[in-house]
Amino acid sequence: MLMRGEQSSDVEFLLSREDVQRAHRRVEAADDPPGASRREVRDE
Question: In angstroms, what CA-CA distances link 17 with 21, 23, 33, 35?
Fold first, then answer.
Protein backbone atom coordinates (compact mmCIF):
# COMPACT_ATOMS: atom_id res chain seq x y z
CA MET A 1 0.00 0.00 0.00
CA LEU A 2 3.01 2.29 0.35
CA MET A 3 3.49 4.69 -2.56
CA ARG A 4 6.65 6.40 -3.85
CA GLY A 5 8.78 4.55 -1.29
CA GLU A 6 7.08 6.27 1.64
CA GLN A 7 7.93 4.79 5.02
CA SER A 8 5.33 3.52 7.49
CA SER A 9 5.94 6.57 9.70
CA ASP A 10 4.96 8.86 6.81
CA VAL A 11 1.72 6.98 6.29
CA GLU A 12 0.86 7.25 9.98
CA PHE A 13 1.46 10.99 9.75
CA LEU A 14 -0.88 11.36 6.77
CA LEU A 15 -3.63 9.16 8.19
CA SER A 16 -5.16 10.03 11.54
CA ARG A 17 -5.47 7.19 14.03
CA GLU A 18 -9.26 7.54 13.94
CA ASP A 19 -9.34 6.91 10.19
CA VAL A 20 -7.04 3.91 10.58
CA GLN A 21 -9.18 2.45 13.37
CA ARG A 22 -12.36 2.95 11.34
CA ALA A 23 -10.75 1.25 8.35
CA HIS A 24 -9.71 -1.71 10.49
CA ARG A 25 -13.21 -1.97 11.95
CA ARG A 26 -14.68 -1.98 8.44
CA VAL A 27 -12.37 -4.83 7.47
CA GLU A 28 -13.31 -6.76 10.61
CA ALA A 29 -17.00 -6.10 9.95
CA ALA A 30 -16.62 -7.62 6.48
CA ASP A 31 -15.21 -10.80 8.04
CA ASP A 32 -17.56 -10.99 11.04
CA PRO A 33 -21.32 -11.69 11.00
CA PRO A 34 -23.56 -8.58 10.64
CA GLY A 35 -24.72 -8.71 14.28
CA ALA A 36 -21.20 -8.82 15.74
CA SER A 37 -19.85 -6.09 13.45
CA ARG A 38 -22.72 -3.71 14.25
CA ARG A 39 -22.14 -4.07 17.98
CA GLU A 40 -18.46 -3.11 17.61
CA VAL A 41 -19.15 -0.18 15.28
CA ARG A 42 -21.47 1.36 17.89
CA ASP A 43 -18.44 1.81 20.18
CA GLU A 44 -17.44 4.77 18.02
Answer: 6, 10, 25, 25
Q: What CA–CA distances, in Å, run from 41 to 10, 12, 31, 35? A: 27, 22, 13, 10
Q: What is the pLDDT of residues 1-44, one digit of tens each?
A: 555 655 556 666 666 778 878 887 877 777 766 665 555 555 55
Can you give the residue ranges of every domain in the chain? 8-41
- pTM, to two decimals: 0.29
* CA–CA separation, 8 and 23 (whole Å): 16
Half-sphere exposure of 43 (CA within 13 A, CB side): 10
